[in-house]
Amino acid sequence: MAEEKQPSDSIKRSKGKFDPLKETRQWSAAVSEERCKRIARNIGKRLVEIIDTEDEPLPIICIFEDYPDD
User: Fold this and answer.
1) Which residues contact 36 (CB under 8 A, 6 or more apart)?
2) Measuring CA to CA, which residue among 54, 21, 17, 49 is closest to residue 36?
3) pLDDT tens digits, 33-59
4) Among 42, 23, 38, residue whose Cα is nearest residue 14
5) Is 28 exposed, middle or buried (0-12, 13-18, 19+ CB in 10 A)?
6) What is the pTM of this model?
7) Residue 70 pLDDT
8) Alpha-carbon span 18 to 20, nearest angstrom
9) Is 67 helix (H, G, I), strand (E, B) or coil?
10) What angle is formed at CA 21 by the lines to CA 69 and CA 19, rounded to 5 degrees?
């Protein structure tokens, strides 16, 4: 996967193929980055990675992790 310029929100962003069988973290497909952020809020998880697969109809893969214990 090719790395993209990273904004300062600590979310890793990349483009390329996504293999759901190799991914061990919780993930979801979405239509946009904003939808990923909304899903994360709704499920109470931290959004850690966004993969732009450029596949329609849901080109964005959102990767989630639990929040670290305080």
Assistant:
1) 28, 30, 47, 50, 60, 62
2) 49
3) 999 999 999 999 999 999 999 999 999
4) 23
5) middle
6) 0.84
7) 58
8) 6
9) coil
10) 95
